[in-house]
Design a protein that fits this description.
It is built from three helices and four strands, in the order H-H-E-E-E-E-H. It is an alpha+beta fold.
C-alpha cells in the first residue's frame, strides 16, 4: 500500500461524491467525515483548538500519524472536477 499525503486524503474523502455529481452545497451540508486505517478527515472540524467551517477539509491523521492539515473544500472539489478523479496528477 502506497502512503497517502494529507492532500490525497482530502481528495479521497470527497472524490466519490464529486464524481457522482454532488455539488459544493450538498457536500457542505452533509459535513462528511471518515476515520479509517489510512486517514482521518472531515468537512469542518477542530485542530489545535481552532474551529474550521464547512468550507474546509480538515485532515487530522495520515498513515497512522497525527497531522494538522486544512484544505479549501472548493479547491479540492474543482481539482477533482477538472481532472476527472482518480488522483492521476498526484502520483
Amino acid at each position: 500500500m502506497e502512503l497517502l499525503t494529507p492532500r490525497q486524503a482530502a481528495i479521497k474523502l470527497i472524490e466519490h461524491y464529486v464524481l457522482r455529481g454532488d455539488n459544493l452545497h450538498s457536500l457542505r451540508s452533509g459535513q462528511l467525515f471518515c476515520s479509517c486505517e489510512e486517514f482521518r478527515a472531515g468537512i469542518s472540524g477542530f485542530l489545535s483548538g481552532k474551529k474550521y467551517g464547512s468550507d474546509k477539509i480538515v485532515v487530522s491523521r495520515i498513515n497512522g500519524k497525527e497531522c494538522e492539515e486544512v484544505f479549501d473544500l472548493a479547491d479540492i472539489f474543482n481539482l477533482i472536477k477538472n481532472e476527472g478523479g482518480e488522483q492521476k496528477q498526484l502520483f
